Structure formats: structure tokens, C-alpha cells
């Protein structure tokens, strides 16, 4: 009998201190209210034209169908805009062992000036069967589910989008910091 009371007391203690999972945080542009990753990166000694050329190389090394993802290509203005898609592996529920790939589209804008470039990743869309929902609406919908059932998936979307954005911008930076003029000895 004593052990039953101890067990009940332990269970009630755990439930008192159990915390509700935190809602995910993502960088949201104050004007557009959209998830947006942006940054300005200095590249010493590189002209606008050279940065543009390096970015085009990065596009063709990164995307299988680079010509299809380029939506705006303005060399003189130092502007590239792409619309691309990636599969993000997410577990739809905590009980799932294997992740499910969710297709997510995004827009990436690249602006070039002498010695620097700016990237902006935004307009994230979760692609479903015949539907497309902004990442903001998808996360809001998940957070609105009763008893925090959707918070796990919302957190995964936030985490995976952040990891992908970081990976993409790091690979861009590596390529944009390397000359492509052919002057290197090989």
C-alpha cells in the first residue's frame, strides 16, 4: 500500500514539473511576416561581376536543373533570384522511427556589389499532394493542434529549415570566396 502511494506521488510530481515543449522560433521579417534568412558577406577584392560569375558556378554545382531554378538573371544589376525545392526529412510524430520527406520550396535572392554580396532566403512553401502551404501557416496549424500534438512537427520544420538554410549559405560562401579566373596553377 505504501508503495502505491509513493508511485502516485512520484507520478503527480512528474506531471507538475513536466514542461510543455517550447514553440519553435524562426527569423521572421518584420515587414513581410515571412520566415527569412538574410546576410551580407564581404569578399575582399572581388568585383560585382566576379561574384556574379562565381554565384552562377555555385548554382550549376548545387542544383541538377540550375537553368530551371533561375527566375531572374540580371548580370549588370548584380541580381540572381532562384526558386528551388528540397526534401526535408521530418518525423511526423514522436513515435515515428523513420522520417518522411516533405518537399519544401523557397526563394533565394542574391545581390552583388564590389567586395560583398547579400543573400535572402524566404517564401518557404510546404508542398503536399496538389497543395502548397507557407511554412508560417503550416507551423501555425501544427501549433494549433490540441494537447501539443503538432508542436513536435512544428519544431522539426523549424529545425530542418534552419539547418538547410545554413548549409546552403555556407556552400555559397565557400564558392564565392574562390576565384574562378583560371589563374590558379593546376
TrEMBL record:
Superkingdom of the source species: Bacteria
Residue ranges occupied by any DUF4468 domain in the UniProt entry: 37-125
InterPro entries on file: DUF4468
UniProt KW keywords: Signal
Leader peptide range in chain numbering: 1-18
Name under which the protein is recorded: DUF4468 domain-containing protein
Protein's organism: Hymenobacter volaticus
